[in-house]
Design a protein that fits this description.
alpha+beta, 2 domains
């Protein structure tokens, strides 16, 4: 028995599944499941994290965002529980601090 995963390409239809082959290598069983767009996006996030050995900064760079953007994406995708609470909590705090600094600096020309 072998299981397979797609490339998790958000632009394409994606399937996961399993196959069973006999002793001669002939296909005896094949079952696939089509992933929804949301499942594909979630799989893409996890595959990108796995490719960078769960390095949030490297994953963010690979996805064209920053660490806070990645943490927000993970949280919205339902993976917030996979991150340490201090990482999740730091995101809104950091955004608030940046807004406060910007408002103290006054308007820019």
């Amino acid at each position: 028995m072998a299981r397979f995963l797609p490339a998790f390409n958000p632009e394409a239809e994606n399937h996961i599944g399993e196959t069973i082959t006999d002793e001669a290598g002939q296909l005896a069983y094949l079952k696939t499941f089509r992933l929804s767009a949301a499942q594909t996006r979630r799989g893409h996030l996890l595959s990108q994290l796995a490719a960078t050995d769960w390095d949030l900064d490297a994953t963010a760079t690979a996805l064209g965002t920053d660490r806070d953007g990645l943490v927000q994406r993970l949280d919205r995708a339902g993976f917030g529980h996979l991150l340490r609470p201090d990482i999740i909590d730091a995101r809104p705090t950091r955004a608030r601090k940046l807004r406060n600094l910007a408002s103290k600096a006054g308007p820019t020309k």
